[in-house]
Each structure stands twice: as C-alpha cells, then as structure tokens.
Description:
2-enoyl-CoA Hydratase, Chain A, domain 1, globular, 11 helices, 6-stranded mixed beta sheet, alpha/beta, 3-stranded parallel beta sheet, homotrimer
Amino acid sequence: xxxxxxxxxxxxxxxxxxxxxxxxxxxxxxxxxxxxxxxxxxxxxxxxxxxxxxxxxxxxxxxxxxxxxxxxxxxxxxxxxxxxxxxxxxxxxxxxxxxxxxxxxxxxxxxxxxxxxxxxxxxxxxxxxxxxxxxxxxxxxxxxxxxxxxxxxxxxxxxxxxxxxxxxxxxxxxxxxxxxxxxxxxxxxxxxxxxxxxxxxxxxxxxxxxxxxxxxxxxxxxxxxxxxxxxxxxxxxxxxxxxxxxxxxxxxxxxxxxxxxxxxx
Amino acid sequence: xxxxxxxxxxxxxxxxxxxxxxxxxxxxxxxxxxxxxxxxxxxxxxxxxxxxxxxxxxxxxxxxxxxxxxxxxxxxxxxxxxxxxxxxxxxxxxxxxxxxxxxxxxxxxxxxxxxxxxxxxxxxxxxxxxxxxxxxxxxxxxxxxxxxxxxxxxxxxxxxxxxxxxxxxxxxxxxxxxxxxxxxxxxxxxxxxxxxxxxxxxxxxxxxxxxxxxxxxxxxxxxxxxxxxxxxxxxxxxxxxxxxxxxxxxxxxxxxxxxxxxxxx
Amino acid sequence: xxxxxxxxxxxxxxxxxxxxxxxxxxxxxxxxxxxxxxxxxxxxxxxxxxxxxxxxxxxxxxxxxxxxxxxxxxxxxxxxxxxxxxxxxxxxxxxxxxxxxxxxxxxxxxxxxxxxxxxxxxxxxxxxxxxxxxxxxxxxxxxxxxxxxxxxxxxxxxxxxxxxxxxxxxxxxxxxxxxxxxxxxxxxxxxxxxxxxxxxxxxxxxxxxxxxxxxxxxxxxxxxxxxxxxxxxxxxxxxxxxxxxxxxxxxxxxxxxxxxxxxxx
Lengths: 265, 265, 265
C-alpha cells in the first residue's frame, strides 16, 4: 500500500491504494510503519555523512490526480464502535508521527486532497500541490463529522485563527490557487513536476547544517507535537459523534452519491 | 432601530438609526435584544427541521453606504461616568453576544465602518463588504481612545499579531481592498449585492449538517468567547481613559470637525 | 558607529560601521546606548508638546544597499566563550530595548538585511524596505546557528506559526517582494525614498494622541516584551551551540567564502 522510492538522501513514500488512496485502517498502519522505519534507518549510524541508503528527508506523495480521498468512509461504515475506536487511535498516532518526525517530510499533493487527505499534509513540513482541476479542503463538517480539536488546532497553527474558523466551519473544498492564498499549502507547480519539486525541497532541507536545522525544526514544531499530549478524551468524543444519527445519515448519503456517480461514469 | 427582514432560514438584522447608525446606548440594547430573540426562537422547537419561521443564521447589515459610524460620540459626550459605565457594560455584552451567538452571523458591511462599526463585524462569523469609496478600520487611537484589550485580542485573532499591532496602533482607515488583503474582512462585492451575498453565505452555513457545524463553530470560536471571561477591570480602565483630558479634547475636536463638515455640505 | 540625524520630532539612528554594518559587540552597545538616550530625552520634560529637540519617534536605518549584514562572524570567531557570552547578553539586551522602546521605532531597511540584520527589524514597530536586488531573511540555520527561541517567537508573532517554521527552518534569503508577501516586512519603496518614507511613518505615529497611542502600543507589544522574561538559560544554550564543531566549521566556511568573494571582486 506504500511504494518506497529512493531519490538519493530523500525517500519518497507513495500512497498506493487504488483507486483513491482512501485511508483504511490498513493504509494508516502501513504509512505509520513506513515513517517509523525511515526514522529508525536515519538514526542507524550517527556521525556518518548522509548516504543514499540512509534517508535524510521524506516525501509523502499520492497518485497522479489523487493524493488521498481521506478516510475510507464506505469501509468504516461497516465497523462497530471498537473498530472505529481503533481507526481513530491509529489515525491520531499517524498524525503525531508526522508532526514529530525526526526527518523533514514534504507533502507532494499530487491531486485531490479532501478531508483526511488535507489533514495528512497539515502535519508535514511543506505542502507542494499540483496545479489543475483539483480540490483540497477541510470538508469534515459537510460529511457530518465535527472537526477533531487536534486537527482544528493544526489548521489554526498553519493559517491563523480567523481563516481556520472559515475553512473548518464552512468546510469548503478549494482549488490549489485559493489554498495557496489562504496558506493551507505553500507552493503550486505543474502536475508533472510536483514530486520532482517536493524531492528537491526535501533535498534542500536535508543538506542544511544538521544540528542547527534539527534544533530549529524541533523548536518550530513543538506546538504541533504538543497538541497530542491529551487526546484520549478527544478520541472518545469523536467516537460518540461518529455514531450519531446525523453523522451516520450524512456519511451514508455521501457514499450513495459517490456510488451513483461511479455508476453513471 | 433594528429592522427585521426574513429571508427563508436567514434573518437579517438591519441597523436603522439614521443618519449614521451611530451606536447609542439604545441602539446597543436594541441589537442585543434582537440577537437574544433570534437565539430563543432558534431553540424553540428542537428536533424540527429548519423553517422560514425559525432563523437558522443571521445577517447583520446597515444602510447603503453606511454600515455603522461606531460609538455615538456626540451623544456620549453628554453622559457622566455612570452613563458611560452603562454604555461600555452593554457594548461589551453585545460583543459577547455576537461572539457566543448560537446562530452564525454574517456581517453585510454595506458601507463605511470605522471604529465601533468595524468592531461589531470582528465578532461575526464572516465579513462581506461593499466595494466602493468606503472606509473601515480600527481608528480608536485617532479619536483619543486607547484600544480596549478585548477588542485588540479579537483583531489579533483575525489578522495575526503583527498586522493587529499596525492596524490598532496606527489607527488607519482603509478601503475594502486593503481590508481584504490584511484579513480584516473576507470578501468584497458590488454594493448592490452585499446583503444578497451575505444572505447566501448565511444560508449556506445554515444548510450544513447542524451538529457537526455547531460543534466545529464552538470549537473555532471558543477563544473569542473566552476573551470576555474577565472584563470587569477592563471596563473600569476604559472609563478612566474616557474622562482624561486628552481623550475628551480629541473627541470634542472630532465632533466639531464633523459638525463643520455637515455645515459646509 | 551610530549617526544621529534629527527630522523634527523623529530621530534617525543610522548604523555607520562600514563596510557592512556587521553587528560587533561595540556596534551592539552603541545602538543600545543611542536607544536609551532617546528614551531618556523623550521623557525629559513631561507635559510639554513635542519639539524638535525631544524625539517622539525613531527611525533605524543603515547604509544605502546595506542595512546590516548581521552578527560580525569573522570578529566573533576570534572570541572565547566569555566574549561570546557577553555578545549574546548585549544582543538580547538590544533586542529587548527595541521591543520595549517607549518611542515607536520604524526600520528603514536600506538594503541587504540577512540574519541579525533582519532580527533587528523584527522588534521594530514597522519595517519599510528598499526595492531592488537586496535580500532579507532568517538564514541562521544556513550559517550553522540554531535559531534562538526568543527570535523564533518574534518571527512567529509577525508572520504566524506556519510561515515562521518555513522561514526559520529553511533559512531562505528572499527579495523584498517575497518578504512583503509573507509579512516579514510591511512596505517596499524605491531605494532613494526608504528613509524619507520611514521618517514620515514615524512622524505619523508621533502625531497621534499620545496617551491612547502609548496604551495601545504597550498592549499590542506586551507579548513581544514578555518573550525576554527568562532568557538566561537560552543564552547558555546558544553558547553551547556556538562552540560545536558543526557551527564553528559552517561559520569558518562562510567567512572563507566571503573572503574569496571579496578577493575576486
């Protein structure tokens, strides 16, 4: 579900769960494992110079035209409370692993990136998105899901309180240029260059004086990591919300709409 | 002093105190009462779908060309300490009611919006302003008034610390495009469409899955509401400032300048 | 090392340490002394109107084409731990004096402004930069220096958490237009007008109702001043970092590169 591609000191983790890189419990765990492996290998030989075998920075990419459609709602609708609990637990663990990654992670947003797709990118170091008829946004509310506080706080950290309120309450999906203007992403490049550009940006970070860069990264991201200090009660609240009539009905309507669209296509 | 106009699920509260919608103690109380009434009616029949009779979102509008000129300084200059105390008390109560409104409020900034006019808009969910030769800004300092901390914090929340310092210390009034650029407002539309656009934006918020939207709104606006936790001492400080020689002289000079301008027109 | 130029109520403090206004311990102390003198004189005759003899606002400027190259690394490399300790102690004192200045300070960024040059401007009230082929940025990491927390927090306050992370971790130097877009500076004007424009902006601040402006400035800048409450441990950490092999090697390589460049020119 994760393809590993090495570009010198930069390791690309490519989401590979067709057709939409929907975040199933398995994909969430696979990405967490890939991040942990990269961190382990990076620390393997302290004191040695960077080498192609040891990653010094990461790129998180998706498929051309589709970074990730977010949580795999059709699948999740088949799970009981215990299954959903596990999913949220592992999803929060993945977000924390991105926030606290000892290696810089550049998101190569290769296409659509709604809800959970956008959320993954929030916790990376940089967000580079493909130009084109793609949408990105925090549309959780439109799917019937209240925005989890740990995710809202990450949006606020990135774009400020006023814009975060608008983005998360209204739940708009927007084109790359609008996302760039509001600060949800950092750069827009032609679609066929988005991975290449992300690899270059990651390589540039990897080439900086390591101790100074590490210290400054930890300093700048400490607030992001700290968000995860007390998320136990939050996961329970998300669970309660998940099984309300409104949320279930809105998610089922969404799944039916998507199924009809696929049938019509 | 407040005209009520119903647009389906959206209720428009239109400031109607000619010529400038200056915020007198009476207008402040009337707007507070209208907000409270809308909140009461919205809660009247829990569980029922939205209906034209029950507002699900609000629009706060003014007169064409003049949203609100801010506090009614000529009138306030005739009040003693007790009268000014009551005014600040009720004004803070109004701002808190906007911040904590259970219904989303979209500001339709139909024209000029200096000082107190801009302040009302700060506490709304969205700010849509009429294009044209209008000015908006936090020019309290230019009127001789120190910026109240609870208002400064709301500006900072909306535009960030750096821009908030510039806007509030310098006290510049600016055209809609500049206000949009700095994030003081969210959208600029032709003057004859500003109410219509605000009603549409409010209707869009009203149509979102209600529980998810309510939760996310409360989460996103909790910091704004919290600002009002301890404003007793602040009101006293504003009172002291109000009766200093500098503030009184600056306000009187302003009132004379406005009177001469009207005489000349 | 500091030229004093009086422009009515505005006093210009012009950095005058050729060729690059590099911040040596002496220049740091001279600028601190000039700020303290201006604050003393401003307070000398309370109650009297502003006069050309008593400064009411300050401009901090540099040489045409070079605001300040930042810390004087070649000189600092000759100092021992005690010398570097004194330098950091005095540099933090200077930054705090700018943050807490009772007089507004407008930075006239007359040209290049990397690292320590940009840092001085962060703590001013406004930043007006010369248009042209100049660079500004927080490139400490590229010089091998971890970003001091008190400086990172000032960047974050000015541009927000997301942009601050990018600017400080990546350490990019950027042209004035890019710095304006991210909010690191407030205005870009033709090079031959930068001091004149800064003086006009300072005069405008000086002409505001004084009590209201002072109160609002203190309110808006309280967070910036508060950053310095506990920087003792921070100075020790910066000292440790300064003498690591990585930092020393990176700084020496920089100095050699600059020397070669000068030799080639």
